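Re: [ENG-882] Designed sequences occasionally contain unexpected residues at chain ends

Forwarding the minimal case from QA. Structure tokens:
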């Protein structure tokens, strides 16, 4: 199974997970709060803030023709309405270096972290949250738009709402079903408001990145079926059903990791995977055909699709190669079945800061040692061969 010659191949990262020194956002506070779920400080990250140029050159040398990264809002707007010229200059250098490699940039404007001041005034629940977000989006686009061929407004609004407001292991650390649903709705509105604001500021191709797990009821009973319907609405349908009309954007980012079983008897509302299911370092159930299934679901929006994240946390790189090749086969099958998928960005380029889990989970194609030296794993070379040829059949180790 082959993919088109103009297919985009690369990896994804986010600012807080790789840059280091992001001390002015809500995550930094969460990491340093004695009772939060976060296990360690993001600290110096993998020092991508200073090493971006070498990192891009390495990714390019591995055959990638695209790369996804995020801009850190708390650096751009350290206080309300106060925009940092040095932060803009930094990201201009970053995006210029990326363009210089020939890789196509996917730039996420908000990937989980909020400026401390924005979180302190109520975060997404403040009455003017959407106005403040769109002002930031417009500012970044006006300054850097020519360097951002693909702009992603928000990363995984559903996971911001779920992890932060229902499960409580991301900031603000709440477990409140009412606020969970309200924030989900606000975040959809934030995307829909950001699209015209970014267009007016001269933005090019605008999209949203959604995580689309395969959701199944844990048992065949009324309670499971009804919670499953609610979860499917809040995590999948609320977003996909509202992107189809004008103006939901120009493309959709599909992020796929796993299958989950909805279970009202579990305190988290998600049950354990059935015995025997292969699990990752995160305890996530591996289910490659789910990528094909969710690409079909996402295609109902009518938007061109890019897989903007897909990957596995594992210390066994052979397992990563299997995960990668089986998921790419599922993607290729979806394409063969008529789904318009135009690129695949693996999560992640490097082992990095995995939010509340700290640095333990290893999602990278490339490892990073204590001196910040980068070392491509065998999976990076397998991916390089696929990216260079577009051919999936042969994946020699
Ligand atoms: C997020 C990433 C995260 C990855 C693995 C996605 O939910 O966008 O920031 O590291 O999944 O958990």
């Amino acid at each position: 199974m082959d993919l088109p010659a103009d297919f985009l191949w690369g990896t994804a990262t986010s600012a807080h997970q790789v840059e280091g020194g992001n001390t002015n956002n809500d995550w930094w506070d969460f990491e340093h709060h004695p009772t939060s779920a976060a296990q360690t400080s993001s600290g110096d990250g993998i020092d991508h803030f200073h090493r971006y140029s070498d990192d891009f050159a390495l990714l390019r040398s591995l055959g990638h023709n695209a790369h996804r990264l995020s801009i850190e809002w708390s650096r751009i707007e350290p206080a309300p309405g106060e925009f940092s010229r040095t932060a803009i200059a930094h990201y201009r250098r970053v995006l210029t270096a990326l363009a210089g490699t020939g890789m196509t940039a996917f730039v996420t404007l908000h990937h989980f972290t909020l400026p401390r001041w924005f979180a302190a005034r109520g975060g997404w629940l403040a009455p003017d949250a959407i106005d403040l977000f769109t002002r930031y989006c417009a500012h970044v686009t006006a300054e850097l738009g020519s360097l951002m061929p693909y702009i992603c407004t928000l990363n995984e609004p559903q996971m911001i709402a779920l992890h932060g407001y229902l499960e409580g292991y991301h900031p603000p650390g709440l477990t409140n079903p009412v606020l969970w649903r309200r924030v989900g709705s606000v975040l959809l509105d934030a995307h829909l408001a950001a699209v015209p604001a970014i267009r007016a500021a001269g933005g090019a191709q605008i999209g949203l990145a959604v995580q689309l797990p395969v959701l199944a009821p844990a048992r065949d009973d009324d309670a499971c079926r009804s919670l499953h319907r609610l979860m499917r609405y809040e995590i999948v349908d609320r977003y996909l059903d509202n992107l189809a009309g004008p103006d939901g954007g120009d493309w959709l980012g599909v992020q796929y990791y796993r299958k989950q079983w909805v279970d009202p008897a579990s305190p988290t509302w998600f049950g354990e995977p059935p015995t025997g299911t292969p699990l990752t370092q995160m305890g996530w159930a591996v289910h490659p055909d789910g990528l094909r299934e969710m690409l079909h679901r996402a295609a109902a929006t009518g938007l061109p699709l890019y897989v903007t994240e897909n990957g596995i946390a594992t210390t066994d790189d052979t397992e990563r190669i299997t995960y990668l090749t089986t998921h790419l086969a599922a993607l290729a099958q979806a394409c063969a079945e008529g789904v318009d998928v135009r690129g695949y960005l693996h999560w992640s380029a490097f082992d990095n800061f995995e939010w509340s889990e700290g640095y333990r989970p290893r999602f990278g194609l490339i490892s990073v040692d204590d001196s910040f030296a980068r070392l491509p794993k065998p999976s990076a070379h397998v991916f390089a061969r696929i990216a260079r040829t577009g051919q999936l059949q042969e994946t020699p180790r």
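QA comment: On inspection the terminal residues look reasonable. The mean pLDDT is 97. Proposing we downgrade this to a documentation issue.
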